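Repro case for the chain-ordering regression, as requested:
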Amino acid sequence: MFDPQTAPIFKAVKLSKIFSLKLVRFFEVVFFLLFLFSLINIYSPIPFNFKLPLNLLYFSFFFWGIFFLYRCFFNQKLKNPEIKNPENLAEFLDFEAAKAVDFALLNEGDFTLLLLLYLLSSDKLGFIPKRLLLDQEKIKNELKEKIIGTRKDLREVEETLSLILRKTWRKITIFDLLPALIETEPLLREFLESRHLSKDDVKEVCLWQKRILSEEERKKRFWEKENLLRKGALFEDWTAGYTINLDDFSTDLTRRERNNLLSETFLHKKEIERLENALIKTERNCALLVGDVGVGRTEIIKNFVRKINQGESFPSLNYQRVLEIDMPLLISTGKRGGDINGILKLIFEEAVAAGNVILVIKDIHNFINREVNVESADNVDISFVLSQYISFPSFRLIGTTTYEGFHKIVQQVPEIQSQFEKIEIKSPTKKETLLILEDEVLKIEEEAKVFFPFQSIKEIIDLSDRYIQTVPFPKKAVDLLEEVVIYALRVKGTQEITPDVVEALISEKTEIPVEKVAQKEKEVLLNLEDLIHQRLIDQEEAVSEVANALRRARADIQERKKTIGNFLFLGPTGVGKTETAKCLAKVYFGSEKKMIRLDMSEYQTLDSIDRLIGTPTEPGYFTTKVREDPFSLILLDEIEKAHPNILNLFLQVFDEGNLTDGAGRSVDFKNTIIIATSNAGAELIWEAVKEGKNLEEYKEEFIDELLKEGIFKPEFLNRFDAVIIYKPLSKENLEKVAEVMLEDLKKGLFEKNIKFLPSKDLIQKIVELGFNPQFGAREMRRVIQNKIENNIAKAILAGEIKEGNEIEVDPITFEVKLIK
Amino acid sequence: METTFFSWYFTEIPKKIYRIWTNYLWFFQRFLSMPLLLRTFFAPWKRSYFVSSSKGINLGEWFGNFIFNTFSRFIGMFLRLIVLLIGTLIEIIVGIGGIVSFVLWIAFPFLLIFSFIKGIMVI
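-- result from build under test --
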C-alpha cells in the first residue's frame, strides 16, 4: 500500500511548503535581533536618543521563541516521524525522499521520470553526477522532453519503493532512490551504459556521498561522547611511571590519532579484535602482525589506537598510551654511544614501570639477528633484551613483520616467537580498497586541488590489480593514486584526473599497452598473423589460433578468469615452435624480453618445485618473475620432461589463472600467455608426413598415441586452449627461413651503412649445408654464423669493407666480395 | 500534532538535555582523570618508590626507603587532592548548568506566554 495522505512525513512536506524553513529561520534571526536591541535600548545605562516601546521587547521575545520552537520541533520531530503503519510504504520515506516523491506525484507526467528529474536537481545529490562525469543539464533536458505526454501510474511508485525496501528494511533516503530508479528506468540505464557506467557504480557513489554526509554529521555533534573524547585526558600519566627515555625514542600514537575518529567503514575489524584479545591476556600478551608490506599493518595499529582512544575496547586497554619505538633513531644514538641494547633495556624498563604503555616495533625482523656477535652498521640484534622482557605480564608489545621475516628470522628465535600471538593480515579485496581510496581521494583533492571522477578511482584499482603484483592492496592502489596526481599535474598539465591519465601512467610504468585498444594496437591485433609471418615461415594453423586467442582477450569480450591463452606446440625440433613464442612476445608484448622461459628439463625431480614456486623462506624463480612482470609470455620448453607433479601445478594455472607460491601468496597469471612446447612423438609426425597424411586429420590419432604412451595425461592436455602440431619444414620453407635469418644480418650491416645482398645461390647453399631432419632449421643458424657472419666480421676488422660499401658472399667459397 | 508537540517538548527534549548533561558530567571527570586519581589516591607520585635491594634487614636502607616512599605518596596525594577538588567544583558547576538548562527549557513556553500577555498589557 502506498498512501501519502495518511503518512506523517508527507504532512511535514506539506507544512514545509507553507512555512518554508528558510523563511522561519529568517524571522527567527530578525526577532532575536529586535529583542536584543530592545533590551539594550530599554535597559542600557547610557540613554538612547529614542526610546522603543516596552511591548516591542515582549513581542519580539515571544515571536523569536515561537519561530525557534517551530524550527526545532520541525527539524527534530516532524522530519523524523516514527513508522506507525508498516503496511504503508509512504511512511518509510525520510523527509528528503518524501519531498522528491511529493514532487513526482504532484506534477504532470510519468512518476519515475519526474522523481529522477527532482533527484538530479537536488543539491545533496549534485556530487553524484559530477563524480560520474555525467552532464547533469543534458540528462535533465532529455528527461523533461521525455516527460511531456506521459501519464502517471501509481503502481510504479509502489514497485520502486518496495524494491528498495526489500533490500534495506529501514528508512528510504534519496541515496536509495537513485540506484533503485536505474533498475526501473530504462532511459537512465541506457544513458549510463552509453557512458560505460553500471548501476553498481551509481550505487557506490551514492553510498560514498551518504558516508561523507554522515561523517560530517557525526563530527558536528560535539556533545556526543566520541567527540568529547577527542579532547584527551589530563593528569592520566600521574599514576603512571616516568617514561623520560622512552618518550625521547618513540612517537606517541595515542596523541597523534586523538583527532581522528574511527571511520564507520574501517577495515580489518577481525584482526583488530584479535589484537585486542592478545593484548589483554596475562600470558603471551604481545602480538605480531604478519603480512606483506603495504597490506595495511600500520593502518590496523592506527585504528586500534583510535578504538582505545574512543574507549571502545577492553577496560584494560582503553586510554592506554601506544608508543612506537623509533628504531632508526635508537640505533643511530646507540651507535654513537656504543650501547643500543643498554638504551633498549632502559626504555623497556620504563614501559614496564609506567604500567600504561603498549609498545610498537615495526618490521621487528630487521632488528633480530642472532648470527652476529658484534653490532655493525647493518646488523643489530635486540632479541636478547627483548627475550628478557617479553614474558613480563606488564610488557605489552605489538610487532609487525613480513611472512619472509617471520619464517626466516622470528621463527628462528623460539623464546621470542612463543611469546607472540601471530595475527596474519590478508590483503583487502578490491571492494574494500575502493573504500580506502574514496577516503584518500578526498584528502588528496583538497591538498593538490585536483579532481578524481569515480571512473578513475575504479581504473586505479583495476589496473593496479592487473599490472602490479609485487605490492599488495591497498598500498599499490594508494601509491598509484598519489603518483597519478603528480603525473597529471606535471606531465599532462591537467587537474582533472580522467581514466586516460591513469592508463597512460600505467603504460609508462609497466611498458604495457594498457590504453583501451588504441588505433595502433588495433592494427597490430588485426594483422597479428602477418606480423608474425614476417619472421615465422608457414605454420599457419598455429599462428592463427594464437592470434585469435589474443584478439579475444584484448577486445575484452568476456571477463577473463584464466590466462589469455594456453597452447601446446608439438612438433620436431627447429620447426618454429620457440620462434612463434618469440615473435609473439615481440609483436604483442613489445619485446622478446617479455618472455619468461623455463627449460622444463631442469624440473625433473619433485624437489625442483621449490625452485619454481619457492618456499616460505625463499622466493621461487618462476613465481617471482611472473609477479614482477605479469604481462608476459611464458614459454615452457620441453614440457614432457618435467616431473608429473609439476605438471599438476600448472593445471591450477590453466584453470584458474593463479598459483599459490611457497609463501602462500597468490600469483596472478591472467595477463600471461602460456606456451608449452614438446617434441614428443616427433618421429610419428615425420612418418605421417612421409606417408603424405594431412596433419590436421592426423592430429587426433597423434594425440591418442601420446596419451597411450603415457607422455601426457588427458586432464593435462584438455586444459590447453589448443594443441597445435608443427609440421616439418620443406626445402622451400627452409629457403624462406634462411632469408629471414639473413634479414637480421642485413639489418645489422645496414646500420653500419654496409649493404649486404645475399644471392639465391647463397640461400640454397645455406639450406643444403644446414638442413637436418633432426634439428630442422636450427642448424642453418649455425651455418650462417660460421660461414657468413664470421667472414664478414673478419673483412670489417681487416678494413676490407668500409662504410658505404655493397657486398655479397660467394656461395661456394663464402668469401666476401665487394660490389661497390 | 499537538500531542506530538507536547510529548516531544516535555519528554524527548528533556531526555536529550539529560543525555548531553550526563555526557558533560562524564567528560569532565574523564578529562581530569578523576576516577583514576581517586583509585590511586594513596599511590606514590609517578610510581616513584624504592624497594630494598639487599637481602636480610638493613635498617638504614629500610628507613631511607620508608621516608622517600612516604614523601612520594604525600606529594601524589596532595596534587591529586587539588585536581579532585577542582574537578568536583567543575562537576558542581556543570551539574547546576544542567539543572538550569532543564528548568529553563520547561519554563520557556510559560515565559513566552507570559511575555505575550505582558506585551498586550503594556499596550
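Ordering looks correct now. Chain A has six domains: 8-78, 93-220, 230-424, 430-509, 520-725, 731-818.
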